[in-house]
Amino acid sequence: MKKWVIALLLAMTVSGCRRYEPVTELPGVEAEAGEGTEETGEYAADGVSDQGQDGQVRDGAASQSQDGQSGDSAGGLGQDGQSGDSVSGQAQDEYAADEIFITTLPERTPVKVKGIYVSAYVAGTKARMDELIQLLDETELNAVVIDVKDDNGRVTFAMDSPQAQAIGACENYIPDIEELSRTLKEHGIYMIARIPAFRDPYLAEAKPEWCLKLADGSVFRDRNKLAWVNPYKEEVWDYLVEIGKKAGEAGFDEIQFDYIRFCTEKGMDQVVFDPEETKGRSRQDIILEFVRYAYEELRKEGLFVSADVFGAVIGGGQDAETVGQEYSAMAAELDYICPMIYPSHYADGNFGLEHPDTQPYETILAALGDSAEDLSTVWDVGGTTGTVRPWLQAFTASYLKTYIPYGPEQIRQQIQAVYDAGCEEWILWNASVRYDSGGLLTEEQGQAEAAAREAAAQNMQPE
Q1: Residue 436, Cα to own-chain centre: how many angstroms?
Q2: What are the tens digits of pLDDT across the range 104-119?
Q3: What is the spatial distance between Cα 60 and Cα 42, in angstroms, rounded to a whole number?
């Protein structure tokens, strides 16, 4: 039996993919902490592409793992009913007698996200945003992922961030963030701030002491001549968290980190890391430390925290070590983990499919099955993981030798695969921010569909 079939059976017994909620924390008990991508036709030498079809650089291209499976496989299921910030049952019993419950963290209201990516340019263009808001009003969509820091490292609105202002990072792509936030809230739209983390050429140029360097002291640059910042530099962590907090002040409900990894291009083996900074910590170690730090700091502000990740890291191996992402460990420290599982990013033959791009349902289902298998290593020992909220393909990968047009049918097939894998949330990616109602349900239809799924799941529970 294929791995993903086994994982799907697991999903049917572990309903949902949740790990969020809670509003309280007991005294003396530490709270449990908890990459949408560009379509691409180029692959880097190491198997992971950073180059988008239209020249915009984004995370999420396919890579080839050691077992021959496409590196950008992703997905999975979270553990049902487990609260991401809950304390242990033992601790609750300890305090129950005296009924001492002290709320030390702000309340957070989780939303089952059905979202779309929105660039900063579109977010700052009223006519385009009015069109998108109408689309959200008329369909099951309820969330937007907006660039708060773009792939070039520019903060996209006038932000009262001392560090961003000090280096002149703010660019007024969104001229009135307060008005935009107010309008989105009036329409009941959940706001997610996308913040690329360690691919930040603007910060790297402004603070060369924080960027990746070669043995001769020169700056490492990728094939687009762009510098990356060094994940071992905790000053970079503070900068990212500050931007996240300011995004929260502007009205965003969630901070989503993209490029939360090391660069994967040629020449990275020549980058020198200071032993006094690494302190023996691997790439995976330091990325996980950043995740924990960012979660702790942003959670205190009442914000949800998520991360976009490569599918290549699922199951571990060389890809995971090179990128610096350990899938299940990261998922255990986040509210949401967002694997990028576009069918176009899987090589021919993956999951036993001749051309994955031509079989969107089967590809998404298989990718999420692999994710479930990986995350089960956490669940099996009583742990919890963040909600799995995959990125889905809302574009046609015409750069492939074998592809199909992606329209309403292909979008709906992917969404159905998400549900059939036991997950409930998803985000659509289109670099041009072109979406329509095709393949989407109305809000009422979406609610009815969700109720039917829940009823079916209840009926499948053993007596």
Answers
A1: 23
A2: 788 999 999 999 999 9
A3: 11
What residues have CB less than 8 Å from 201, skipping those under 6 apart? 152, 153, 226, 227, 228
- 141 touches 192 (CB < 8 A): no
Phi, psi of 254 (to 5 degrees): -145, 145
**CA-to-CA distance for 196 and 259, rounded, in angstroms?**
5
Q: Which residues pair with 194 in a beta bridge?
A: 147, 256
Give CA–CA dist 161/285, Å, rounded.
Answer: 28
Q: Is 63 helix (H, G, I), strand (E, B) or coil?
A: coil
Structure tokens at 88: 């242990």
CA dist 229 to 127, 203, 220, 350, 430, Å? 36, 7, 10, 33, 27
Rounded Cα distance, 440 and 140, in Å: 7
The pTM assigned to this predicted structure is 0.82
Contact by Cβ (8 Å): 34, 295? yes
Would you say 308 and 59 are in contact if contact means Cβ atoms under 8 Å apart? yes
Query: Distance between CA atoms of 348 and 62, rounded to whole angstroms?
Result: 11
Length of the chain equals 463
Residue pointed to by tokens 């983990």: 337
Q: What is the largest CA-CA distance in the chain?
A: 68
CB 201 within 8 A of CB 152: yes
- Torsions phi, psi for 195 (to 5 deg): -130, 100
Contact status, residue 146 vs residue 191, Cβ threshold 8 Å: yes
Q: How far is CA 108 from the centre of its chain?
A: 19
Q: Which is nearest to 252 in space by CA: 138, 153, 147?
A: 147
Amino acid (one-letter) located at 156: T
Nearest 10 degrees: Cα torsion 274, 278, 282, 284: -110
pLDDT in tens, 296-351: 999 999 999 999 998 777 777 888 899 999 999 999 999 999 999 999 988 899 88
CA distances in angstroms from 223 to 39, 44, 117, 267, 320, listed in the order given: 18, 9, 26, 9, 21
